[in-house]
Amino acid sequence: MKRSQPSGAQKRKKRKEKEEKKNKYRAAGEGTSSSAQGASNTQATEARNTQPASVAFVLTYFNVRGRAEPIRLMLKDQGKEWTEITVTMEMWQQGALRESCLFGQVPKFQDGDLTLYQTSAIRRHLARKFGVYGKDDKEASLIDMMDDSLQDLQTKYFTLIFQNYDTHKENYIKELPRHLAPYEKILACNKGGFLVGKQISFADYLLLLLLQHHQVLSPTALDNFPALQTYRDKLSARPNIKAYMESDAYRNRAISPNGKQ
Ligand SMILES: N[C@@H](CCC(=O)N[C@@H](CS)C(=O)NCC(=O)O)C(=O)O
Predict the structure, then answer these.
(1) Which amino acid residue places its CA nearest to atom 6 of ligand 1?
(2) Which pTM does this prediction carry?
(3) Model confidence over 47-74: pLDDT tens digits?
(4) Which of 83, 173, 237, 248 is the most buried (most CB within 10 A)?
């Protein structure tokens, strides 16, 4: 049987419904009308208010450090402003935001008319933009290598936090020196004081955060790693990083959504 074609009025109705759905998401996402975002709205609004008109960075993520923190840390260290759209579980579960994200996940990052997903791509995009991707191709490749290895460590850490914290924490801490040793070796050799070369790179932001988070997990984690300690202190003393890490925005933002750390 021939299916009946939707009439013009039906088509218009469908279009209107679609538009309404989109607007609903927009309002919730920007946090201007949704009470679900609570305190985080203030942060997003503050960022918007202090942002020069020419800056159009927008980061969409949950109110945790998680995968977004290396992005935030790089933006802070480089003195950039951005608008933070804080996603609540309630918003996420509604589904419209998830459906609007290319791979159904956040972080989402907007740089003007460019929308990016995938943390690594976002970080590398900003690193190229800010000139923290090495002085030449050789350094860039070494930075990629360091960052990929750090992401391996981050994945191990996330697995512990999200999947088997109670049963595996002790063993994880026992194994940790083996995972930190390569960075100790690199930093002891590199007189530039960074993972690669003589200037900070996007990989350094991830290492600094991983060191901090592992020290929360195990306060003695760096005891036998003098070069890592010096490195942590040096990076943490960079004025913008110091100010950020002493701020409530950073301190009050949980490392993970399940409270494990
Ligand atoms: N490979 C992706 C992974 C992103 C990812 O796992 N995002 C999580 C938050 S950290 C997420 O969106 N979870 C919600 C979901 O998958 O429904 C990236 O690095 O950006």
Answers:
(1) 105
(2) 0.82
(3) 333 445 556 999 999 999 999 999 999 9
(4) 83
